[in-house]
Amino acid sequence: NHIRKWIGDARKESLFSLIYCDLDRFKEYNDRHGFLKGDELINFTATILREGLDELPEGTRLGHIGGDDFVLVCPGKVSSSALDAICDAFDRKKGLYFSREENAAGCYRATDRQGAVCSVPLVTLSLSVIEKDNLDLCAHPAVIAEKAASLKHAVKRITAAERRSSWLIDRRKAGVSGEAEQ
Predict the structure, then answer these.
(1) For residue 75, what are the contacts with CB-CB under 8 A and spacing of at least 6?
(2) Using an 8 Å Cβ cutoff, are 53 and 60 in contact?
(3) What is the pTM assigned to this prediction?
C-alpha cells in the first residue's frame, strides 16, 4: 500500500518522523450520534491534519489507515509547536460536531464498550510520534507502524486525564527501555 511505500522511502532519509493519529472515544461518538456524523467527524479530522501539513516538514504525506486512524510520514523531525497547533485546532473546532449542551458540559451520555450508559468526554485527538533515531536500522515499515500504535495507549491516558487532544514523541533509543516524552 501507499503508506508502507512512504515509510520505506522516508527511511532512506537522514531524518524522518511518523505520526500515528487516532480519535479517542470515537466508538461512543459513532454509537451516540450515528455513522453519518461519525463520517463527518473523520472528514473533519482529515481536514485538520491536512491543514497541519503547513506546520510539518515539507514533503509530509497524510494517509488514512482506516476508521478513525491516520498516519503522517514526515521527512524530518517534527516540532512540538506543530503538534500543539494540530491538537489546538482540533479542540478549538470540534464543537461543531456536538450540541450546545454537550459542549457546555464537556461530555455526553452514551453506551461504553461494556454496554453501560455513562458520561463520555468529548472526542479528542491523540498523536504518537516515532523518529528514525528511535528505531532499529532494519525495522520493517509494519514494525514502525506497530511501535507508533503502541505509543498511542500512553497518549490516550493523557487525553483522558486532561480532556484535551495531546501528543507524545517516543524518545527511547532503539534497544533501550525508557519512557516517552511530551
Answers:
(1) 10, 13, 15, 16, 57, 58, 59, 60
(2) yes
(3) 0.85
Residue 181 domain-assigned?
no
Max CA pair span of the chain: 51
| CA–CA distance, 40 with 48 (Å, rounded to integer) | 12
176 domain-assigned: no
Question: Which residues are CB-neighbours of 155 under 8 A, at least 6 positions away?
Answer: 126, 127, 128, 166, 167, 168
Supply 179's cell numbers: 519512557
Residue 16 lies in a domain: yes
Residue 101 CB-density burial (10 A; 0-12 exposed, 13-18 middle, 19+ buried) = exposed
Cell of 28: 461512543
Look up the domain containing 27 and give its range. Answer: 2-170
- Work out how many domains the chain is built from and give that number: 1
Laid out side by side, the sheet with 17-24 consists of 61-66, 69-74, 17-24, 124-131, 166-170
Percent above pLDDT 90 for the chain: 57
CATH classification of the domain holding 20:
3.30.70.270
Residue 165 lies in a domain: yes
Q: What is the pLDDT of residues 160-181, one digit of tens each?
A: 999 999 999 886 554 433 445 5
Helix (H) or strand (E) holding 64: strand 61-66
